[in-house]
Amino acid sequence: MKQFETALPEQFETLKKQANYTSSWRERLDAVEMLSAYQHDKIIDLLKNRMQHDTVNKVQLAAYEALSAFGEDVEKPSPARFDIIKGTDKIFLRVKKSLPKDHTVADFADKLKRMRLDVFDAYEGDKGIQFMNWLEERWAKL
After folding, report:
1. pTM of the model
2. Domain ranges of the chain
3. If you average pLDDT over residues 35-51, what whole number do you get?
4. Long-range contacts of 98-107 (CB under 8 A, 24+ apart)
5. Which end of the chain has fewer CB atoms < 10 Å from its terminal CB, N or C?
């Protein structure tokens, strides 16, 4: 069985903030991966929170894997079946209405990123390489 550090890392507070940073799933994932080397109650609580409440499945799975490696009794999270952020269509519609009539999907993506980085980032993380195709489909239906 793998051995883990049992003390909190010196940079725990920084990693805790990073793990909860809503505008970057990549930073949350990095923080979860760094924290997975430390088996401490505070870290276990933080990882359980990320596993249960993160909008991006990759982050949820990284937290799950860390908790499983610690020997915690956790259930593997499944990907969201519907929108991962409530009211996504309303957000997209607001962005689309703020653009000129002849805008492109690239214009839409850029404006969404500027207006709602949290939404853009969450779906980019969730959809991966399919993100732009998915976004174009949603944009075309608005």
Report:
1. 0.82
2. 11-70, 88-141
3. 96
4. 105/132, 105/135, 105/136, 105/139, 105/140
5. N
